[in-house]
Specification:
Length: about 325
Amino acid sequence: MRIGVAGVGRIGTMHATNLAALDQVDEVLLFDPVPGRAAVASAALPGTKAVDDLDALLTASDGVLLATPTTTHPALLRAALAAKVPALCEKPIASDLDEMRALVDDVEASGVEVLVGFQRRFDPAVFELHRRVRAGEVGDVYLVRAIGNDAQPPDFGYLPASGGIFRDLLIHDLDAIPWLVGEPVVEVYASGSVLVHQAFADADDVDNAVVMLKFAGGAHATLAGGRHDPLGYDHRIEVLGSKDSLAVGVDARTPLTSLEPGGPVVADDAYPGFPERFHRAYVNEMTVFTQVVAGEVANPSPARESLISLRLAEACEASRRSGAPIRLTGVNA
Ligand SMILES: NC(=O)c1ccc[n+]([C@@H]2O[C@H](COP(=O)([O-])OP(=O)(O)OC[C@H]3O[C@@H](n4cnc5c(N)ncnc54)[C@H](O)[C@@H]3O)[C@@H](O)[C@H]2O)c1
């Protein structure tokens, strides 16, 4: 099959590389409006070919991956729907809730498969955690704890358009944790501070945040996220239940030093960033995308479910600003 990639920037180049390595992909087509960018990327990547415009990309592709700036996602996704080409769109598929709701309605009316690039859903360890929780192997879930720290802050010029720490960074766990627990969220409380750099305050944002989610059945989740970790990129999830206690993201590369005798110490090759930490997830995401395109598996990350994380991110932002918890009437898509 042939897969098109629109947007050959940071994440698009990584996805194109992973797609080109798959046996079931005959060719990866690249399009980027910056003159020469797709041709340069294609010259460096065997199995790819640059095309001149979006129409050429959609006409020649069995599936299209949208790895462009978030503001361009709704228009590009609608072009894919009109061309009847299944798509994997990077998260978020739209930057505000009303726009996303309208887009999700259009996706469903079209009958075209659209996957959202929340890579935790494709991570083998997180997927196994999900399977065990949903199979009852953990028993009743008492508590979920997630931590997600960038190693270094993003370019400060990126901050004003980022949407803030909840829409930009914590959104991944705001997607993954309700998906894991499988119950509506009934209450949200969030708090944040500027501890890393004044640039976050100047952008009306925070650089460290904590979120509490309460689920309909009474279980809680705490999510913590920050923009600087001197030891590396750290993402972990722990689930404590009545039968078992499980963790993902705890391995020889976790940027953490234990003070216990014989405990782990930070490794020289601690994860430097999200591409390394989630390498297996990104490779698997491309495999699953091709399987959805071929009609072999169900879509594990549908557009409608991505409404949940944006709704929660907006509630987190409102809670941080007001200092009060927010009760929700059960957040599901
Ligand atoms: N899932 C993840 O882990 C993850 C990580 C990083 C970024 N993202 C998401 O991926 C998207 C892209 O982020 P990035 O960091 O790669 O951005 P980037 O700026 O590095 O790359 C975007 C590319 O898209 C191109 N582009 C712009 N408009 C286009 C259009 N209309 N058609 C085709 N190409 C177009 C740009 O020229 C650029 O080359 C964002 O939505 C971001 O939120 C997801």
